[in-house]
TrEMBL record:
InterPro entries xref list: FAST_kinase
Entry GO MF terms: RNA binding
Designated name of the protein: FAST kinase leucine-rich domain-containing protein
Organism: Cladocopium goreaui
Source domain of life: Eukaryota
A GO cellular component entry from the record: mitochondrial matrix
GO BP of this protein: mitochondrial RNA processing; regulation of mitochondrial mRNA stability
PANTHER family documented for this protein: FAST LEU-RICH DOMAIN-CONTAINING (PTHR21228), LD45607P (PTHR21228:SF40)
Length: 110
């Protein structure tokens, strides 16, 4: 049994911060095939997208980009949320978000 297989079923029960930290840790582990693990988190993220802080949402996007697990719907929804926040986003988060979008090849007009 892998750690990823134990974690995936509890994604819906994680707080936004726990989910963000979990994805960042798994992105840092260098998994051989992270795609299925990251895709399993997408529904939990999208269903509660408004509950994530800007920092958590950007960390999630950078985690996806780091492992090259690109989900265009997640990036699109996140872009809309972050675009509404505008000047409330920290400069470092803007830089990280820009890197994540550039790395994913995903563009958004805002």
């Amino acid at each position: 049994i892998s750690l990823a297989s134990l974690v995936k079923p509890v994604f819906p029960h994680f707080s936004p911060h726990q989910l963000q930290n979990c994805l960042w840790v798994f992105a840092s582990l260098g998994m051989k095939d992270p795609g299925p693990f990251f895709e399993a988190a997408v529904d939990s993220i999208e269903q509660r997208i408004g509950d994530f802080s800007n920092e958590s949402l950007v960390a999630i996007l950078t985690s996806f980009a780091k492992v090259k697990a690109f989900n265009s719907n997640l990036f699109g929804v996140a872009a809309e949320v972050l675009a509404k926040e505008g000047s409330l986003i920290r400069p470092q988060d803007i830089a990280n978000c820009t890197w994540a979008f550039a790395s994913s090849g995903h563009s958004h007009p805002d």
